[in-house]
Amino acid sequence: MLTAFVMTGGAPAFAKSGGKPVEPAAAAQRTETRPNILVIVADDLGYSDIGAFGGEIATPNLDTLATGGVRAANFYVAQACSPTRSMLLTGRDNHTAGFGTMQEVATSDQRGAPGYEGYLPRNVDTIAERLRDSGYQTMMAGKWHLGSGPGQGPSDRGFSQSFALLQGAHNHFGADQSEAFQSRGIAGKYRLNGAPADWPAGHYSSDVFVNYLSDFLDRTERSQPFFAYLAFTAPHWPLQARPETIARYQGVYDAGPDAIVRARMQRMVAKGLIRADMATRALGQQAWWDSLSPAQRAVEARKIEVFAAMVDDMDSRIGKVLAKLRADGRLDNTIILFMSDNGPEGLVFDRLLNPSNLGEVLDLGVDNSLSNIGAPNSYISYGPRWGQVSAAPYWGTKEHTSEGGIRAPLIVNGPGIAKETVVTQPIHVMDLKPTLLAAAGLREQKVAYGGQSRLPVLPALPANRPRPRRS
């Protein structure tokens, strides 16, 4: 446990924004019956990676959430992480929410222009602000990537408790906290309730974020509902995982991409996620696999073994959160939403680049030899071939507005929600804020370029009432 370094100071005030209540005072009378809300986001997870969506990776906790709830077969996000996150939290189009694109790739004429601010504008509220002001206790742990300047962090946008990585990626073991990384300005930047914070040396990212969230939950009042946002950085590159978890996947991918995709699609058909005719489409990766030497195949297989281990570890840490809520007696009244922020990464990252000058390769002791892939001093992605496996059965990967880049897994589980249900109606990430607000008894203002509540297509979600049939 990491409780020794997690929290200091007094309990936060949850119910006000700038000292001024926003929601009606009557909302306080509903707090004992309103559901808790837990939103979990994976980073660069593909559509078919987890077991509930056809994958071979061991994800028993997510699979249990899926069979006990709703899977959305046609859930859409942006093709990159910060635009999706801005829409998730605000319920608005990513341009309205300040992220027409990721700041890291914005052109000189885009930077600072309306719609490309690189932070959440003040004229757009967040789900955390709305829920906090109606009596919810709000907290987050994980990746923010929605602004790193003064007044732009999670503490400024509705989260009363937070531990956040401000930028989009980091070393999963904290190995980028050394003086060499610090001096080049490429170390991970972390904030605990708005104040600079250190990474606990040697601890793995999924553990750190879950332990922070667990401590935040320990500090909540049981008589008030909570809104928790758990934003993993797994399985985003650099691909790094524990050796013992990587070992579980040794040999699983030795047959190559096509064999994995074929098996995934058969399982997706059986689960009702895709049509049977989609499982017969051409795969096209075997020629690449056959062209590799045995040594090259070993390296390529090792990459996705590490990726699978990252997903496996993320699932087991989600299990810890679920076990905690169950032990606290709060699980049965908690709506849980799990999603990925975009399609899988298809670009090749096999060297450490200077974020402020992507043409500069930094020599900071990276070792991508076969036996070291996955270690804290390795720095590698799994590339377009395995990325296409993660996106199966859809074409394309992250950075592309093709189905593989913008379609993601979505699971919704909670009190009263139908079990073992696959929803085929399209749902967009902008719809999640108004949907969750509606479940909390709040109404979202209808705006242009914004989402809408999807309660009618999420069977039996709280506040959803069957409509009488017309004669």
Summarize the structure.
With 471 residues, this protein is α/β, with parallel strands linked by helices. 26% of the residues lie in helices and 14% in strands.
Q: Would you write up a description of this structure?
A:
The chain has about 475 residues and is of the alpha/beta class. The chain contains twelve helices and 13 strands. Strands 1, 2, 3, 4, 5, 6, 7, 8, 11, 12 and 13 form an eleven-stranded mixed β-sheet that branches. A two-stranded antiparallel ribbon has the order 9-10. A hairpin with a 2-residue loop joins strand 9 (about 355) and strand 10 (about 355-360). Helix 5 (about 205-220) packs parallel to helix 9 (about 295-325) and helix 7 (about 255-270) packs parallel to helix 10. It is globular.
Which key features would you list for this structure?
471 residues; alpha/beta; eleven-stranded mixed sheet; two-stranded antiparallel ribbon; 12 helices; 26% helix; 14% strand; globular; disordered N terminus; disordered C terminus
